[in-house]
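Please, structure for the following, as tokens.
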Amino acid sequence: MASELTYGHQRREEEDVGLNLGDLDITSDDFLLEEVDVHIQENLEDEIVKEALKTGVDLRQYSRQIESELLQVENASIQDYIKESENIASLHTQIAACDTILERMEQMLNGFQSDLSSISTEIQSLQEQSVAMNVKLKNRQSIRGELSQFVDEMVIPESMIKHILDTPVTEREFLEQLHELNHKINFVKEQSFRDAKSSLDVRDILEKLKMKAIAKIREFLLQKINSFKKPMANYQIPQNTMLKFRFFNEFLLANERHVAKEVRDEYVDTMSKIYYSYFKGYQSRLMKLQFEELATKEDLMAVDETTKKDILSVCLNRRSTIIK
């Protein structure tokens, strides 16, 4: 500040003498008059200088006035700076505190950015795991249906065992379970050909149920066939009953053919005897319907003596044909 005041005082002394050397360095070898003319021309083009020249103001006096005003403003600004020194110091402290807080925030943001980077990596890893789990889920769902069906086909429920063992063969539940038993027997056979280990677990149970069902069916069919032999029995009724249970014969043919042959032979033998007795009685009744007195050769010309035997021969031929 002292140097600036000294410089201002020197400027005023130079102006009093009438010399205004400015910032010229007369010892410089590079001084050019052309540059001085350029500076003078630029100063003359200034609006304030032009206004001062027009009004005829003394430039020296005007310069001293301006310099005095600048000095006053400078002193006032110094006083203001001194008055606000405490506020400036407080502001400096606050700025330093703000710098510290901002530095902390920068560190926190850097840590947050690092955490976000690690979280992004974890999210990507979780996404890959989710895709892999989704693929596994689809694979399990695709095989769950087939595996569930396989287990249902292989398992023997308690209801099947109960109905096959205890329910009469004429009941609807027995027929339904017999269909299911036949299906499971065929399924287990098929799986045994494929070397499925699970077929060994149910094979014995299915075999026992099959033998029990065959025994009950055989007894039922033989009883129905024997009912044909009762005197004056309407054999069409038990025949219709057996027709409703025709699946019994299919089951026997599929699982025990010699029992099916036994039942068939018994049925054929019984029905052949029944038809034979029916036709025999029919023949005897036809013979009774013949006239006791027939025309002889003495009554008619060209009478065949074998006429009496025609009806009998026809009946016998029909019976042999039906039996065959």
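Residues 2-17+34-83 form one domain. Confidence is low (pLDDT under 50) at residues 1-31, 307-312, 318-324.
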